[in-house]
Design brief:
It is built from 13 helices and 12 strands. By secondary structure, the chain is α+β, with helices and mostly antiparallel strands. 34% of the residues are buried.
Length: 362
Amino acid sequence: MSEDSIRKIIHIDMDAFYASVEQRDFPEYRGKPLVVGGSPEGRGVVAAASYEVRKFGVHSAMPAAQAIRLCPHAVFVKPRFEVYRKISTQIRDIFFEYTDLVEPLSLDEAYLDVTENHIGLPSATLIARKIRERIKKETGLTASAGVGHNKFLAKIASDLEKPDGLSVILPEEAEDFLAELKIGTFHGVGDATKSKMHSLGIYTGKDLREWSELDLIEKFGKVGRHYYRIVRGIDHREVKTDRIRKSIGKERTFSEDIDDLNWIHNFLTELAGKVAESMQDKQAAGKTVTLKVRYADFETVTRSTSFNHYIDKADDIARTVIQLLEETETGNRRVRLLGITLSNLNLSEKGHYKQLEIPFES
């Protein structure tokens, strides 16, 4: 078995991300053919399209004037990119709880290598399911996921059951699956390439596989080598991340809204212990403690304080967040989420954690 065949890659793709955020935040848009970007006067370009308007053939990057011709009753809204970026960061923080190997492609999709992962699960499918459940619970949005032993297959798989789907392409099934796939469905084969392949009698993966590597290079240039490999399920690209972790945190969304202060104090003490465990596992400590509170109406507030020294002990973290809690309306307002984060970490210039030097008392 080759090296790439034993990797476990997940591709997560948020479903109609911008449009879904708007429909989540504004109930009057739900079930409507919603276009984010452009204008009802036909100016601009579609940034995102809800599934309701996609039925009419409207899609992202389409001129707004064309979208109106296809769906005259479409509802147009202005994009709120700051909101989308904030939610995207929240989703990526979920990814990093499972693996450090996360490669974001855009605000709404990313590759994750979970061959080795933080929760010790051997099944990428179970991890993908957990991530999708977390995203739904914590953001109210749906994501589709694909699982494969390389990036190409994971990307293909994530498109198979959209929206809100999970698909897996097993290593032993990959070649047969790709043989039956229409050539236009291959990631990286655009309309122009599809037309050229059709002119050459290539309509499916099976047709493509009959061509030699040299012949594909002759017809398509260097990218012909790529086509030769992907139709055989070969993709050695690694999941690359340039992320330097800037914080470590834990949070939880409750199934019922909470207003019992004693219960909340006990929960935060427990959560502080989990954060401390993570800090100690990574031989890290931080100077800034942040408490996150989301109320029942989804309003989210944070309160932070910084020290002039590093902390990583559960008691210190718990004592700090309970003090920060007094700066919120918790107790007077019901709470649906609580979180604790330590930031301003003891990182080296290369982003590695420095070994803590702990003085011993004589």
